[in-house]
Design goal:
The complex is a heterodimer.
Chain A (H helix, E strand, L loop, with lengths): L3 H15 L18 H34 L15 H29 L8 E8 L2 E6 L4 E5 L3 H6 L22 E4 L4 E7 L4 E5 L4 E5 L5 E5 L5 E7 L11 E7 L1 H21 L6 H15 L1 H4 L21 H10 L15 H13 L10 H7 L1
Parallel strand pairs in A: 1-5, 4-10
Antiparallel strand pairs in A: 1-2, 2-3, 5-8, 6-7, 6-9, 9-10
Helix pairs in contact in A: 1-2, 1-3, 2-3, 6-9, 9-10
Chain B lengths: L19 H5 L3 H29 L10 H36 L7 H20 L25 H29 L12 H32 L13 H18 L2 H15 L6 H14 L15 H29 L8 H24 L1 H7 L3 H31 L5 H27 L14 H30 L15 H4 L18
Classes of the chains: A alpha+beta, B mainly alpha.
The complex binds protoporphyrin IX containing FE and copper (II) ion (2 copies).
Chain lengths: ~375, ~525
């Protein structure tokens, strides 16, 4: 079995011969080389197949062009009568077969390399796809948060928003909270989903995997360069499939530790918040924020409804608080209304429910984080 | 040769008068015409939906439609183009041509033939009616993956029943074709003398009979999951959402070959005519078609490399998929060898056939790239895949259908089409199909996912180019409708042979247009 190193060498040698200065500017049209060992191998493989195709194309289309130019009736060409040649036919069955082997060998070794999730990983992150946001759980750190499309982008992308989207940096590719990871660490990613199938993809990392309800898929990555890398959900997952970006921020180990510390502190503060009474104003302010990121897309900016039912005047938002809480925790089966038990914490849920019950012209009693805790 | 040409037949009765002719007809030519016109109509409706898609994607930001409606458009566009435009067009061609090519008086099962056509308009009326339903038309993609498809609202059962009806129609059509080919060949027309169009359809018909029931079964399981409490595809109930994908693609991959094998047959008929030289490697063409058909059953999971299959599975499906490139290559090499040292002219059918060979091959190249699992992880579900399948389907399947229309219209109607307009149609189509789809390769490689209504700014330029190509390509097809209309209405009379280099029973033994009932007495084939 040829080793991966020799493979890489072969491929790179071939590429060095083929690549010419004329290809400058070609980069933006091409696959990214990325920032991981996997993404670079994938890139080399891509270039190798591309060149194989281009060369075969030149030969085949060249032969075609030749006959189109020289073997035409208007030039007085007299048709030959041959109509088979066993030798030729065997040749052009066998040669492509051999060429395919030169692709299959490096492809196999790259695939085996990519699928090696068993060798020790430095850390594990669980990624859960929800309609239409990502949840990241740092398994060893007890950190768990949701990553939404950045609220500014979310407003701008609404039809008739009046915002010129070309003025927005990284339009649709920015989130409120990115996934933060250290560079040069082997990171194991576990992928799953809560509602429908999603796919987690950052081109610079060189791989995508589906996040499927009831499954836990694995992939690994090792980012070698600090920076922010952006991608999208890549499996059609409903209305806002185009609006669930993935943003990964790769930082130095020291910065990562610092971020971890801050994140843990914030989690403690939030936990403390869950134990106290919140005022109406606090709930409304927080609730609006939660509503706009989680609910607005379906229920409308002013609770007027859309894909989802109207909140303004809704019997649930004006009825029994217990039923309202229950609906948010569990969702409505068979619809795009997901359960938010795993996505929002007690404070967020209390706030958004209160916001729905007091806002949009509704008038019902507010709820407290403690009510949510009791209902879970 | 003219004494062989049957211009009139004594015990022949012509078509019924009035509209009922079309409803009650069991004549293969009438039914062929119905299929072809229906397919043209669907092509225009599906095309209009594509225009909506390209309009929204013309610029970043949401300008014209809502995301949910956008998803309905991509879903309906694909369903209509695959099941309404491409497949019925090929069945229409088979109806017209298979009996004339093998010297049969009609299809073997004429009444069933009438049925297999006439349930189609009802199926599509049902599908289109979902546009006006609560919750909108289906929006989960033509691939209908659960759990997402189960979020479809009122349209859901209509979607499932539409699939049942279309499947029924395809299966009946396929059985008819097999029965005709096996039982009704003229004396002397041995299997290995059949024109390649007949061969490719023969094999296609078996693919249809094998996979349409699988598809119908899969969607029925969706139906029972939705309404009858089963959980075939619901992990929470012990089912498996990925199972649906396996079953779907077990149908879906042969399905893509259902849409291209007849095209191979058409191109294999046209290239020799205009190169004035017999088809190179007839028997290897037949064997290549058969091997493609066989391989198409063992490559389905190349559509699902990212679902997290075991490595052994991924390797198997990668190798098997790569293998398909070999017989596909054989076909292309044979066409090129047919042209080699021929005496070529470039009438519109030949232009479309040449366009097919080049552009289909480009689609084959991207197919080969997609077959390579580790790289497919990057390409999958991006515009690169969109570019791939439009090269093989639009500049492949659709171009071959256009080529066939230009090639056989004079035979069917007795009138030549307008050659100048035909050439304009070809050149505009070819230029704009590339403006439309070539940049989508770049978009995919640069990281643009498919099935999204809005995108980030680095994709803006190529999307605009692609949209302009799309509008222009769409408009160009109206010219095609006009050319067909004009040819049916009149024009320069076609000779019986139509093309100097044409061969085959339909050109050698039948008048242009052929009598309503042709080959009531079987011709002798040497
Ligand atoms: C050399 C021959 C071909 C190879 C190796 C090939 C390979 C592939 C692969 C691997 C994919 C999956 C890509 C992905 O989703 O990541 C794909 C998608 C597709 N191919 Fe091909 N292909 C070939 C020819 C064709 C032909 C002849 C057709 C139809 C006429 C076709 C139609 C399609 C379609 C419709 C899809 C996308 C389906 C979807 O996801 O909606 N391909 N092809
Ligand atoms: Cu998603
Ligand atoms: Cu396939």
């Amino acid at each position: 079995m040829i080793t991966r190193a020799t493979n890489r060498l072969l491929v790179s040698a071939a590429l060095a011969i083929l690549a010419s200065p004329a290809m400058a500017g070609f980069d933006e049209l091409n696959l990214t080389q990325g920032v991981t060992p996997i993404s670079r191998e994938v890139y080399d493989l891509h270039m190798w197949i591309l060149w194989v195709c281009i060369i075969i194309g030149i030969i085949v289309f060249g032969a075609m062009a030749w006959s189109i130019i020289y073997h035409r009736k208007s030039k007085g060409a007299v048709p030959a009568t041959f109509h088979e040649s066993t030798k030729l036919e065997i040749l052009w069955t066998a040669v492509p077969f051999l060429i395919l082997i030169t692709i299959a060998v490096p492809a196999t070794s790259t695939l085996l390399y990519m699928s090696d999730t068993s060798t020790d990983a430095d850390m594990t992150i669980k990624v859960t796809g929800h309609q239409w946001k990502w949840q990241y759980e740092y398994m060893d750190e007890g950190i768990d948060f949701i990553s939404n499309l950045h609220p500014d982008h979310n407003n701008a992308r609404m039809k008739g928003s009046g915002t010129d989207v070309t003025t927005i940096d990284h339009y649709l590719l920015d989130v409120d909270e990115p996934l933060v990871v250290p560079v040069d660490k082997k990171i194991r990613l576990l992928l799953t989903a809560s509602d429908v199938i999603h796919a987690w993809w950052v081109p610079e990392l060189g791989q995508k995997q589906d996040a499927i309800p009831g499954y836990i898929n694995e992939m690994w990555t090792k980012i070698e360069k600090e920076g922010t890398y952006r991608g999208n959900c890549a499996e059609l997952c409903g209305k806002d499939h185009g609006f669930m970006p993935v943003v990964v921020k790769a930082v130095s180990e020291a910065d990562y530790q610092k971020w971890l510390g801050e994140k843990k502190q914030a989690a403690e503060a939030a936990a403390a918040g869950a134990d106290r009474e919140w005022t109406l104003d606090e709930l409304m302010a927080k609730g609006q924020q939660v509503y706009n990121t989680n609910c607005m897309a379906c229920h409308g900016m002013n609770g007027e409804g859309g894909v989802g039912k109207a909140i303004a005047g809704s019997p649930i938002a004006n009825g029994d608080a217990g039923a309202h809480i229950d609906l948010l925790l569990k969702g409505v089966a068979g619809t795009a209304m997901a359960g938010y038990a795993a996505i929002l914490n007690d404070v967020d849920l209390a706030a958004v429910i209160s916001y729905q019950r007091k806002g949009f012209g509704n008038d019902a009693d507010i709820v407290q984080p403690a009510d949510i805790k009791a209902a879970r | 040769m003219s004494e062989h040409v049957a211009t009139h037949d004594d015990h022949d009765h012509g078509p019924e008068k009035g509209l009922m002719r079309w409803v009650r007809t069991t004549n293969h030519k009438d039914i062929g015409t119905l299929y072809l016109l229906f397919s043209l109509l669907m092509f225009l409706i599906g095309g209009a939906m594509a225009m909506v898609i390209r309009l929204e994607l013309f610029q970043p930001g949401m300008q014209f439609v809502d995301p949910q409606f956008f998803n309905s458009m991509t879903t309906m566009h694909a369903l209509i183009m695959v099941f309404g435009a491409v497949m019925p067009a090929f069945v229409g061609l088979a109806n017209w041509l298979v009996p004339m090519m093998i010297g049969a008086p009609d299809m073997a099962l004429p009444r069933m033939n009438n049925w297999s056509f006439w349930i189609l308009p009802f199926g599509f009326a049902m599908l289109l009616s979902t546009l006006f339903m609560e919750g909108g038309a289906p929006a989960a993609g033509w691939t209908m993956y659960p759990p997402l498809v189960l979020q479809t609202q009122d349209a859901f059962p209509f979607l499932i029943f539409t699939v049942h009806i279309l499947g029924l129609s395809s299966i009946m059509g396929a059985i008819n074709i097999v029965a005709t080919i096996l039982n009704m060949r003229a004396p002397g027309m041995s299997l290995m003398k059949m024109p390649l169009f007949v061969w490719t359809w023969f094999i296609t018909a078996y693919l249809l009979i094998a996979v349409m029931p699988v598809f119908a079964g899969a969607v029925t399981m969706l139906l029972t999951d939705q309404y009858f409490g089963t959980s075939f595809f619901d992990a929470a109930g012990g089912g498996d959402p990925v199972l649906f994908q396996h079953v779907f693609w077990f149908f879906g991959h042969p399905e893509v070959y259902i849409m291209i094998l007849p095209a191979f047959g058409i191109v294999s008929a046209i290239v020799p005519t205009f190169a004035r030289k017999p088809l190179f490697g007839y028997s290897s063409m037949v064997y290549a078609t058969a091997s493609i058909a066989f391989l198409s059953f063992i490559v389905w999971a190349h559509h699902m490399f990212t679902v997290g299959m075991p490595v052994a599975g991924e390797l198997f499906f990668m190798y098997a998929t790569m293998l398909i490139a070999v017989p596909t290559g054989v076909k292309v090499f044979n066409w090129v060898s047919t042209m080699w040292r021929g005496s070529m002219t470039f009438e519109t059918p030949m232009l479309f056939a040449l366009g097919f060979i080049i552009l289909f091959t480009i689609g084959g190249f991207s197919g080969l790239m997609l077959a390579i699992t580790p790289v497919d992880f990057q390409y999958h579900d991006t515009y690169f895949v969109v570019a791939h399948f439009h090269y093989v389907l639009v500049s492949g399947a659709i171009f071959s259908i256009m080529a066939a229309a230009y090639y056989w219209l004079p035979k069917w109607t007795g009138n030549m089409y307008d050659e100048r307009l035909g050439k304009i149609h070809f050149w505009l189509s070819t230029i704009f199909v590339n403006v439309l789809f070539f940049p989508q390769h770049f978009l995919g490689l640069a990281g643009m996912p498919r099935r999204i209504p809005d995108y980030s700014l680095q994709f803006a330029d190529w999307n605009m180019v692609s949209s302009i190509g799309g509008f222009a390509f769409g408009l160009t097809q109206l010219l095609f409708c006009y050319i067909v209309y004009k040819t049916i209405k009149g024009g320069q009379k076609a000779t019986d042979r139509v093309w100097e280099g044409a061969t085959g029973l339909e050109f050698e033994k039948l008048s242009s247009p052929p009598p309503y009932h042709s080959f009531t007495e079987a011709p002798q084939v040497k």
